[in-house]
Amino acid sequence: MQIEYEEHGDGIPLVLLHAFPLSRRMWEPQKKALERVKVRLILPDLRGFGETKSTADTNTMDEMAGDVADLLDRLEIEKAIIGGLSMGGYVTFALYRLDPGRFSGLILCDTACAADTDEKRENRFKLIKKIEGSGSQALIENMLPMLAGKYTKENNPELYADLEQRFAGTDPQAAIGALRGMAARNDSCDLLSEIDVPTLFIFGEEDALTDADMGRKMHSRVNGSELCLIRDAGHYSNLEQPEQFDQAIISFISRQ
Hints:
7-stranded mixed beta sheet
C-alpha cells in the first residue's frame, strides 16, 4: 500500500509517525523547530489517516510498519532516525522487529512496548462498538479526556478544542481498523535489550495512558538510552508542550 507523506529539509533522515487517531498534521509544531537542525524530515500518514485511505476491517501495526519500509525504499533511504508517538510508537517497534538495520536512531514517545492486557483489549472492542453506534463522537467522549493532560485542560482550551475537531474528522472505519490492529499487536518488550542504536524516550509527566513510570522502565532496559519527561503534558506531549518536546529532539539529533 502506498501511503501519503510530506518531506522537509535536507540532512539526516528523520521519520516521525503519528498517534491515534491523528495524522501527520500532529507534527506541525515540530516542522518549524526542526528547521534549526540539518534533518530530512519525513512525515507519513499511516493507513486510514490523513490522506492515506483504507477501507480494511483491520490495519495491523506490522502492515503499517511495512508501509513505512516501502516508503523509505521509494525515497532511497537506507537508514533513518525513526520515531513515533503512541500508536506511532507501536509501529516503530514493529518496524524495528521487521528490519532493525533501517535504524540509525530511535525516538519513542508516550508509547508502550507491551501488548494489550485482556482488559485493555476488551476496552478497545467496547470503543469499537461505540464508534459503530455514534461515529467519531465516541472518540471525543471516551478517549480525549484521558489523553489530554490536566494542565492542557485547564490552561489551553484552544488546543483541546482543536483536538476535538481532529477527532471529529477521523474516518470511523479507519479508527475501527486501527483499534483492531492495536488490540492484536505483538509484545515488543523483548526488543528493548536488543536495541543497539541511540534511543530517546519522551513522556509527558501527566500522561495517564502511558505514564512516566512506563518510560522509566523501558529506558532502564535500553543500554545508553536517554529519557526526557515533559512537564505539564499528557499523552500528546509534542502538542501540549512543543517547546520542551522540540528541545529534547533537537538535542538528541545534534549528538548523532
